[in-house]
Automatic annotation (TrEMBL):
One of its GO terms (cellular component) is cytoplasm. The gene is FGENESH: predicted gene_8.292. SUPFAM superfamilies: Hypothetical protein YjiA, C-terminal domain, P-loop containing nucleoside triphosphate hydrolases. Transmembrane segments: none annotated. It comes from Rhodotorula toruloides (Yeast). This is BY PROTMAP: gi|472581425|gb|EMS19164.1| COBW domain containing protein 2 [Rhodosporidium toruloides NP11] gi|647395387|emb|CDR36760.1| RHTO0S02e06502g1_1 [Rhodosporidium toruloides]. Residues 337-402 form the CobW C-terminal domain.
Length: 428
């Protein structure tokens, strides 16, 4: 254990004590889970935060908003100005233990400053503005080592407006790039399909299918007024670190076969009378050609940096390239624009891993074996790609990945196990 893992015991349990009175217990502290809350303008994010801030849920939650308006209930109450703060502008402490604050930008070091002043929290919720792309926030989090020691990215939760999301997904950007709604849906780990009271029940399956066609692995919950059991959105450990038990929800998307998840409920129930509006080219189900692809994986010798799998997957995520194979002689880029990559991996020593990727950053974390035994047995190793350039080329991409991985594994085997020897062909 490194000394960086050793901290003074959680101060939040003894708010009345001065620093020098705090018992010097040197135990490793769990990272404070951080939930990134995203969603289009008006989807229901503030409604969710309002709910969290008012509920008695027994947790000390810091809700951090990076803008204040003047219309919602929460925002109009948050008027305690701390002018000496560099980044944290305002905060409001509530009697249920929650703390609401505003940061001038998405600079996440504000969170550490906040915890230094106000003690640790059980959970942090960081709300992005309605037009924000969550990916840079996640990337800056992964790239900020100081923050990473104290705070662990828990999950990306997107609130979508059931009545508006189909149109929002279709809105073109002048430069042809992803629009915000597409980015938010594609990046989410959990989607609250909110405002279901405004939609005909028979339309909900189609709308959900549209979301699934973009992001087949997100957990989708239908809500009205963003009302949800908080255990379904908080403390999920989706971006697990080895020391934190993984909740079954983390693995649920991997347990459910993707091809079923992507189908509408009517298809799954065998009801031949339902309409297939989601399969027409004009439907939002395939908005702007963003889609998901699941590639089954073998049990691997290793997933360490330098291993066959690491080499192939990092080339795919970083360079959009797959190795040349017998059927594709060139090493040409695949013209993929990946927004999100997820994987459930297993190695020959019985260890399981979760791969999480947002844009060109990815991380592979071991799954603690004891925590998910039952669910884990159900999960087949797989890699899920979410982005543009997949649709219509699923077979080609999967074949090139599988063949490239097989060749890389054979190469390592010939060389007597090159795993862990570094970035073998990364310099190419
Ligand atoms: N009918 C209905 N209205 C809702 C629901 N959820 C939220 N609203 C209303 O929708 C409006 C927008 O909700 P907000 O929670 O402010 O949305 P937001 O995502 O925070 O919006 P921005 O701050 O603009 O990004 C408010 O008037 C809410 O009362 C719902 O489930 N059904």
């Amino acid at each position: 254990m490194s000394t960086e893992d050793l901290r003074v015991e959680d101060l939040s349990v003894s708010d009345d004590l001065e620093m020098d009175e705090v018992p010097q217990l040197v135990e490793p502290l769990a990272k404070v889970p951080l939930t990134v809350l995203t969603g289009y303008l008006g989807a229901g994010k503030s409604t969710l935060l309002d709910y969290i801030l008012k509920e008695q849920h027994g947790r000390r939650i810091a809700v951090i908003m990076n803008e204040f308006g003047d219309t919602t209930d929460i925002e109009s109450k948050a008027i305690s100005v701390q002018s000496d703060e560099a980044m944290v502008e305002e905060w409001l402490e509530l009697n249920n233990g929650c703390l609401c604050c505003s940061v001038r930008d998405t600079g996440l070091l504000a969170i550490i400053n906040l915890m230094e002043k106000k003690g640790r929290f059980d959970q942090i919720m960081l709300e992005t503005t309605g037009l924000a792309d969550p990916a840079p926030i996640i990337e800056s989090f992964w790239n900020e080592p100081a923050l990473n020691l104290e705070v662990g990215l828990d999950a990306v939760v997107a609130v979508v407006d059931a009545a508006g999301i189909e149109k929002q997904l279709q809105e073109p950007r002048p430069d042809g790039s992803y629009n915000e709604a597409q980015r938010q849906v594609a990046t989410a780990d959990v989607i609250l399909l909110n405002k279901v009271d405004l939609v005909q029940p028979e339309d909900l399956d189609r709308i959900e299918a549209a979301l699934r066609s973009i992001n087949s692995t997100a957990l989708i919950h239908r809500t009205t007024r963003s009302s949800i059991d908080l255990s379904l959105i908080l403390d999920l450990n989706i971006y697990a670190s080895p020391s934190i038990p993984i909740r079954p929800e983390t693995l649920a998307p991997f347990v459910q076969p993707d091809d079923k998840a992507a189908q509408c409920a009517g298809c799954q129930s065998g009801d031949s009378s339902h309409s297939h509006t989601h399969s027409t080219s004009s439907s939002s189900a395939h908005a702007n050609d963003i889609s998901s692809l699941t590639i089954p994986l073998p049990v691997l010798p290793s997933v360490e940096n330098g291993s066959a799998f690491y080499r192939v997957v990092s080339r795919l995520i970083w360079d959009s390239k797959l190795p040349s194979t017998s059927t594709s002689s060139s090493d040409e880029p695949l013209s993929l624009d990946l927004l999100r990559t997820k994987g459930f991996l297993r190695t020959q020593d019985g260890q399981s891993y979760i791969l999480q990727g947002v844009r060109d950053i990815f991380d592979i974390s071991p799954v603690p074996p004891a925590t998910v035994a039952a669910e884990e047995r159900e999960v087949k190793p797989k890699l899920v790609l979410i982005g543009r350039g997949i649709k219509g080329r699923e077979g080609e991409i999967a074949r090139r990945f599988e063949e490239g991985l097989r060749m890389a594994l054979e190469e390592d085997e010939r060389e007597g196990g090159a795993d862990g020897e570094g970035d073998k062909d990364m310099a190419e």
